[in-house]
Amino acid sequence: MELGVIGLGRMGSNMSQRLMEGGHRIVAYDRSAEAVRDVAKAGATGAGSLEELVRKLSPPRAVWLMVPAGAAVAETIHSLAPLLSPGDVIIDGGNSYYKDSIQRAASLRKQRLHFLDVGTSGGIWGLKMGYCLMIGGDQEVFRRLEPIFRTLAPEEGYAYMGRSGAGHFVKMVHNGIEYGLLQAYAEGFELLHASPYELDLAQLARLWNRGSVVRSWLLELTEKALAADPGLATIKGYVEDSGEGRWTVLEAVERGVPLPVISLSLLSRFRSQQDESFGAKVIAALRREFGGHAVKSE
After folding, report:
1. Terminus of the chain with fewer CB atoms < 10 Å: N or C?
2. pTM above 0.90, yes or no
3. 3-state DSSP call for residue 28?
4. Up-side HSE of residue 204: CA atoms within 13 Å toward CB?
């Protein structure tokens, strides 16, 4: 098949490469001319603008956006949609908020354009291992583009989730679960690191992946990171929250669904982003006032 790809960061370029290896024709555009040149060297047809990308695709066109959620997606769709023809498809493969995807699908439908929201997981390993794809939108359009999804995903690694917004809703919850899993591993290994024993944490991660009930790919990556830097001395303990965890918790509040682990893992990320917690200072000051406990000065 033929596919336009907009956004050639690590995910977009790797996805383009996997599709080309699967026999698909890729027309690629990025604001970075260097990124376009790199993917063109790998076999894609480069485009210097959205207009050129559309011209180089045959209708009915399919264009996959792999740009950051929020303003970048909105601006790209706003610029791209007038260039397309009725029956063309825009695919958002980023981590957009599912309610935004519902609105975008409705707006594009008025222009006789289709929209698929595709939750995409796999990160930098997707080129080799494949991408897990959670797809929302018109099922007929999904079926038409299924060869693309089949190439990108490992065996049984893609599925149709339902009407518009479903793909990004499922990916939102997926990422919320990821927050909780990462936090559980982090807390466990922090306690192991503080233990009275001289533990080889990389060896322990490897051990737990041999038959343990907590074995996982994340634990494999833990082993890899600890083997390279046992004390993680080269890494600052600052953890971004890219949005999906917040949306998951807000959705839970809106629907009255208890998510204590995911909610606390989100709050732990907020704590990691502080140079110093004012709240912790309040606690220290109060302990000094009521109990005469020592405090550490700046």
Report:
1. C
2. yes
3. strand
4. 14
